[in-house]
Helix-turn-helix transcriptional regulator
Amino acid sequence: MALGKDYATQECSIARALEIVGERWTLLVIRDALYGVRRYNDFLVHLGIPRAVLAARLQALTAEGILEKRRYQQSPPRDEYVPTERGIALWPTLRSLGRWGREQFDQEQVRVFRHAACGTELGSYGECPACGTIVPVPDVVMEPGPGADPDPADPVSRALLRPKRLLTPLGPDPV
Ligand SMILES: [Zn+2]
């Protein structure tokens, strides 16, 4: 019998969330979308994910209202995937998960997140210690940390070497 993806006996909102984000690769697709990845080929190259799996994840995330599919080219038809409010609301979860992984498994910081307005590194709860406010996702700037190890063959990895705001689409390659 195939392993189901729902948790029918669990009356728990964590179980409800895991029905959507508990599949392998799903959270990493959402992470990349929040970093500004929008196009199928960019997800494909950056994640190193099988094509069929990526297509299934993008379809499921669109159906759940976490990503919105937008056509950016008619001929040939090409779509991009943009995080919705529901998707953006996963940011604190992703960031906490990343901190947990780094602290518990003694990893170097791959990305540093700062408040765009003042440049201060965000605290544990997404707050700016200098301004005393929770920083909205579009006002978070990400930049490479000491553990960043970019793949020269991956344009997304190269693009993320430059500081950028979350959600803004990836720009052209740095020269
Ligand atoms: Zn600040």
Q: What stands out?
A: Strands lie at 67-73, 78-83, 111-115, 127-128, 133-134, 140-144, 164-165.
